[in-house]
Design brief:
2 copies of one chain form a homodimer.
Chain A lengths: L3 H14 L18 H10 L1 H8 L4 H12 L9 H13 L6 H9 L3 H10 L26 H7 L3 H7 L5 H7 L3 H12 L4 H15 L3 H7 L1 H16 L2 H4 L1 H14 L4 H16 L6
Helix pairs in contact in A: 1-2, 1-3, 1-5, 1-17, 2-4, 3-4, 3-5, 4-5, 4-7, 5-6, 5-17, 7-9, 9-10, 11-12, 11-17, 12-14, 12-17, 13-14
Chain lengths: 283, 283
Amino acid sequence: MRTPAQNAQLALLLEVAGTPKPGNVDRHRDLEALRFEHFLAGTIGAQRGLELAANGTAVGPAFERAIEGMAGQQGGNTQFGALLLLVPLVRAAREDLSQAAVESVVEETTVADAAGFYRAFDHVDVYVSDPPAEMDDLDVRRGSDAVPALEDRGLTLSDVMARSVPGDDVAREWVRGFERSFTAANRLAEADGPLSDRAAAVFLSLLAERPDTLVARRRGEDVAREVADRAATLYERGALEREPAAVEAFADELVDRGINPGTTADITAAGLFIALEREALEL
Amino acid sequence: MRTPAQNAQLALLLEVAGTPKPGNVDRHRDLEALRFEHFLAGTIGAQRGLELAANGTAVGPAFERAIEGMAGQQGGNTQFGALLLLVPLVRAAREDLSQAAVESVVEETTVADAAGFYRAFDHVDVYVSDPPAEMDDLDVRRGSDAVPALEDRGLTLSDVMARSVPGDDVAREWVRGFERSFTAANRLAEADGPLSDRAAAVFLSLLAERPDTLVARRRGEDVAREVADRAATLYERGALEREPAAVEAFADELVDRGINPGTTADITAAGLFIALEREALEL
């Protein structure tokens, strides 16, 4: 029997192994400075932080520890968003893993958790947009330097996540009871075949539904919308099974254009974790 | 900083990701009932046993725990031989990892360690040949049922390994101070490029040097010799760089013929661990 922390690590590995995952590192694709092996090392590095979450450490410090460990490889930020979903889910999995349980975890976060979240940014470069002027002292790029402002305003991690919506669909999961993560888990359980195929199918279904917010931040809303529309076209005509070459070509094109739908990958990883915890996947 | 137990898990992941590794599951190849995802799950499952070894638990019980955890997925025996090398290496890595240190670990093994090794066979199917008649009561396929005979004869795990040579090149590592594992580590450190390429190059170099003993047991000495000779031809003419298609074709042919040089993969994993522990790999 795997522990919740082990299932979280396995979810990270299964997510990156899923192929084709258009635009992202997968079993068959590397990016120029970010390779499959960096994700393997990042997953192993995240172990201790995930164990802390499973053992009852608060979300903020557990997350910071997971990110610090994940970042101990040269590929940079491999799994920041995925861990921001997995840490509260792992903590919720100490009891019966449900949307209600993870909503409780979110509600119970404190200002100290928010400080841990900000401190995590000291360990990695994360691509974020400029905040509105009144939020400048809370720019996450300030990392731990923003902690005093955070404490002055008395913001919990749940408050911080709420202020990141819209524009960040990882934060949106926090606000909406991890709705898409649980949907992804159901789809993974209902799909057939090897898990790397299932992960790819669920990734494409999620990409088709909403423009990826990491793509929108980096490349603009129009590009994010184009990617979602093309994913929808492929998904609706069952291209993964019927025209696999078309999906592979789309995947290669996005890699070539440097378009990486990372938020969609993060939610896929969260779905894999939930499905593993529920023993809904044959493995 | 990764712990020795974490480096061992990462070594298992980097080994299976290395491609092309003729005949074996790799980043680009699955076997029919044994897929990449089974190796990912097996690696996560082995975590606790590797931690026990790192924390000073004796080799036999730590190995049994690692195998029990590794076997908790449906692909069956993914990494038995690799763990039989990694557990003593992880234990040796508590001090400075050297051939002398791991030789001490081997010498200090007891009858209880041998019993743990036999109990590990209760958790998996491992392909072994019939033992000679006078060793029948010590057939590893008896698993824990063989423990009384083992105790009667007073055999340590080091004794058991010595009796498995020749014919098992994992056991040979135990007898010869993990010579090829350390050689593999040096080659990995001296090679260039992504680790999946380095792992593939070192795998081919090892396969070229000695007929794989798992292939010999399953398919006969002649097949094992043929595979080694063809690997040597490819390796000597630098085919991985100059004629990559020839190596890929060889890899596909061995998969199609069901020829899986598992012992060579085990030694590659051991080499990856040693190189990671020595911080000799950029990652």
